[in-house]
Protein: B12-binding domain-containing protein
Organism: Sedimentimonas flavescens
Amino acid sequence: EELVLQMMDDLYDGLKEEIEEAVEILLERGWTPYDILTKALVAGMTIVGADFRDGILFVPEVLLAANAMKGGMAILKPLLVETGAPRMGKMVIGTVKGDIHDIGKNLVSMMMEGAGFEVVDLGINNPVENYIDTAEKEGADIIGMSALLTTTMPYMKVVIDALKEKGLRDKYLVLVGGAPLNEEFGKAIGADAYCRDAAVAVETAKHMIA
Ligand code: B1M
């Protein structure tokens, strides 16, 4: 669809209002929120990511793109987070210490809420205590961690090791995700599962909680 290609351009150029308008138009045309999210917004951000990696785009431009993406996500959020779904369990989720990427985490939060999970979002740059203290205080079932940097993903093991030390590891389902991770890494650090994307996070949580 032509509008989707236009959205990819607009996301690339960080045009928030244009993105918001296009999201509204696709909704009117009967697109599902999930398809808009994955086929337009996430697909567009993948192109931004490739050019960022290749030194064609720089941080200020990527920030604008991220901001435009968030504008689109804000419209989709209430639609993805439909009320009335049965309560499935509670998840504490955050991006790990040293890492400020939050778009993927926000997406996981939204989709988990949409699937009926209660979500406590810790935001970015979280030390061990934030995860453990909040999970304990909130009576959570799941701890979710996100990392987008190869330099911050090892911190997930620090959190899991701290859970083990405190004798709390088995109390929680620990799910991890983020672009640089893989199945093998998830196993190596002792997580219950690596989640490739937000949909997999929802399916995994449903499957393992039930
Ligand atoms: Co950054 N950045 N960035 N960045 N950035 C990456 C990650 C990078 C791969 C770009 C590149 O070089 N190609 C690269 C990392 C390289 C590496 O580690 N090997 C990188 C770098 C280097 C950096 C800086 C160091 C750049 C600098 O300053 N020189 C810096 C680091 C700052 C820090 O964190 N300390 C930095 C900064 C930034 C911005 C601030 C400009 C911005 C972030 C804005 C924001 O998040 N609010 C940014 C962005 C936007 C990106 C890219 C382009 C896009 C990330 C994104 O939002 N993707 C990214 C390139 C890329 O990933 N291709 C890049 C869309 C999102 C929907 O996908 O986050 O993967 P993702 O989430 C998916 C899944 O991974 C999964 O589900 C999500 C949805 O399906 N998932 C989970 C994620 N978390 C999960 C948690 C779960 C489950 C599933 O828990 C249960």
Remarks:
- The CA atoms of residues 142 and 172 lie 5 Å apart.
- The two ends are 39 Å apart (CA to CA).
- DSSP finds nine helices and five strands in the chain.
